[in-house]
Specification:
Keywords: Lyase. InterPro entries: SPL (IPR049539), Uncharacterised_Spl-rel (IPR023805). The chain is an alpha/beta fold and about 400 residues long. The chain has 14 helices and 18 strands. It starts with about 40 loop residues before the first helix and ends with a strand. Iron/sulfur cluster binds next to strand 7.
Length: about 400
């Protein structure tokens, strides 16, 4: 499938769709329920004590909202959200890895929003409204650019990010050929470097993006998540946002998905999200090859088949993503979660490749990977035949 080349942002264009921004999920939702993000559960996940903020980000309306949400937090001015001494980089942070993710936030501005072509999960990777995550999955590549022990950075200039995406969508025109991303809409991944459901515990960036996309009939937002945030049910996405619940066998998830919602909760939420106006897909990911993996995935597929109502199955599709790992992350994990590495780091099965930035990445070696992908596809076809596999790699 040919993609139009990514074009640079042009601030002289009229902002496209910004008038669509509605109220976010702060305060009670439209059904009068208190926000989940004000609950004790949410506060336990994000007991923010320190906010590192660029001055302009702290002074912005979004920045002020966030600082007001965490009145106990100490605000520390930083010149840039990149390379904050003592916070970024792995040195000294490994022992307090999980605490840093919950107790610290960074506020910055996205200086030059860019959209990149993708073609696998989405047509385009949109400039995210955050990077980093408050959860701590042992295989997560998201924090790689700031050192693996980094917390969420929220970009406070959400209006600029949305304006950029709107102009990009306008330039594409309608999608004329169906592809694996979507038959009709240009799909924009809005959560490449974080988890939008967790971001929605912090501020209204996710709500603003969901609201913006409902005004764009040729496009659709998409994000993967491992966290069930009931506040998202109140956003009225009108079918223009695809939520991809990531699932894996619960025993793998308990070992590897640190701080996330249990897999059973993610599966149980699918119907609620569909009924609230989302498209609901699944990421079968990452697939970790370990003794017994086939039985475990078979049971998971049986569970999806048993539990999901027909209306979820009718519109569901899945991505299958085999584990990739990284030497640097392996070494970090040995410092805080060595049991995870017993299944993630498998030199007997994996081959390595030096990436463009010099990092040593590992993935299951060619033939073994092809066999595993084939096996999983066959299991999906046999046990959850309603689940279209959009792609597997
Ligand atoms: S939820 Fe996603 S972004 Fe967050 S730590 Fe896990 S894999 Fe990374």
């Amino acid at each position: 499938m040919r993609h139009p080349s990514t074009t640079s942002d042009d601030d002289s264009d009229a902002l496209f769709g910004l008038d669509a921004l509605g109220p976010g999920p702060a305060g009670p939702d439209t059904r009068g329920r208190p926000s989940f993000r004000d609950s004790d559960t949410a506060r336990r996940l994000l007991p923010v004590r320190e906010i590192h903020a660029e001055p302009a980000a702290a002074a912005s309306p979004r920045g002020r909202q966030i600082i007001a949400r965490f009145p106990e937090a100490r605000v520390v001015e930083v010149a840039s959200h990149w390379r904050i001494p003592g916070l970024h980089g792995n040195e000294g942070n490994i022992a307090r890895w999980v605490r840093v993710k919950g107790e610290t936030l960074v506020l910055g501005e996205r200086k030059s929003p860019r959209t990149r072509p993708n073609g696998r999960s989405a047509d385009w990777i949109a400039p995210g409204a955050s990077n980093g995550c408050a959860m701590a999955c042992a295989y997560c590549y998201v924090p790689r650019r700031k050192g693996y022990a980094n917390p969420v950075t929220v970009f406070t200039n959400i209006d600029r990010i949305i304006g950029h995406i709107g102009r990009h969508i306008a330039r594409q025109g309608p999608k004329t050929e169906p592809n694996q991303c979507d038959p009709e809409a240009w799909v924009y991944d809005i959560g490449e470097n974080g988890d939008c459901s967790v971001d929605a515990l912090i501020c209204d960036n996710t709500a603003d993006l969901v609201h913006a996309f409902r005004q764009w009939p040729t496009a659709k937002a998409s994000f993967a998540t491992k966290f069930v945030n009931p506040d998202l049910l109140a956003l009225d996405p009108r079918g223009r946002t695809r939520v991809r619940f990531s699932v894996m066998p619960p025993e793998d998830s308990r070992l590897l998905d640190v701080r996330t919602s249990p897999v059973a909760e993610r599966i149980a939420a699918a119907a609620d999200f569909l009924d609230a106006g989302y498209e609901v897909h699944f990421n079968l990911s990452p697939v970790v090859v370990r003794p017994g993996w086939e039985e475990a995935w078979g049971e998971l597929l049986d569970r999806l088949d048993d539990v999901l109502p027909a209306r979820v199955k009718r519109q569901a599709a899945a991505e299958v993503i085999m584990l990739t790992h990284n030497r640097e992350l392996h070494e970090v994990n040995l410092g805080w979660h060595p049991r995870a590495e017993e299944v993630l780091w498998r030199p007997d099965l994996q081959e390595s490749k030096v990436s463009e930035n010099g990092a040593l990445n590992v993935r299951y070696a060619g033939a073994a990977k092809a066999r595993a992908v084939e096996r999983l596809r066959a299991m999906v076809a046999a046990r959850a035949p309603w689940l279209t596999v959009r792609y597997a790699f």
